[in-house]
Amino acid sequence: MLASEIRTPDRILQKALELFSTKGYDATPVREICEAAGVTKPTLYHFYGSKEGVYRALVEGTLEEYRQGVREAVQAGGDLAACLKRVARGHFEYTRERRQLVRFLLGLIHNPPSSAPATDFHRFYRDVVGEVARLVEEGVAEGQLAPGPTEVRMLVYMGAIGEALHGYLLLGRPDLTPELADTLVETVLEGWGAASQGRKPTT
Fold it and tell me: Crossing angle for the helix pair 51-75 and 8-23, nearest 10 degrees?
């Protein structure tokens, strides 16, 4: 899509992302965002109110979109394995299509700009993990999965997805294909089943 074909609000966010990613939020003035997006300051203020408004739309809008994607994947129906595969595929697809944006968000989590508005990443993480945790617990209740510690299972599942995403963002591998997502889930489920069946009672 040509830059001229992108809606003005989206173009502002796109150029702000590029500048925030390279220069940082603190060092990026509104003037540079406007010049890069080919808009005037009044236009930016009309859509977002301020640089902080641009930042919030970019970051919080993305988190909400991501959260909604996970929710839809969980609620789409099917057995536990199918739902977990949809969630993993969604993570992979989003990262492939928005590589710069995901890298930017991860950078904010580890090193938030000093003057940027605070973002509740803790709530975002709890919401996403909570959706998947409820799905797993329902699978246990329905007999699809042997009982086991949900919190540990979330560490394994989300950790496996996160490791794949970090590898892709840092090294360009693994390739985040649907097949990899499915294999990851199948391997995790196999491990959960084996761990549950093989665990010995403690004394």
Answer: 100
Superfamily of domain 1-49: Homeodomain-like (1.10.10.60)
122 token code pair: 């803790």
Of the candidates 137, 153, 134, the one whose C-alpha atom is nearest the C-alpha of residue 73 is 134
pLDDT digits (tens, 9 = 90+) for 45-81: 999 999 999 999 999 999 999 999 999 999 998 999 9
Tokens of 193: 């089943």
Lookup: tokens for 158: 């989300």
Say how far apart CA 40 and CA 31 lie, in whole Å: 8
Q: What is the pTM of this model?
A: 0.85
Residue indicated by tokens 């993305």: 62
**Assigned architecture for domain 58-198:** Orthogonal Bundle (1.10)
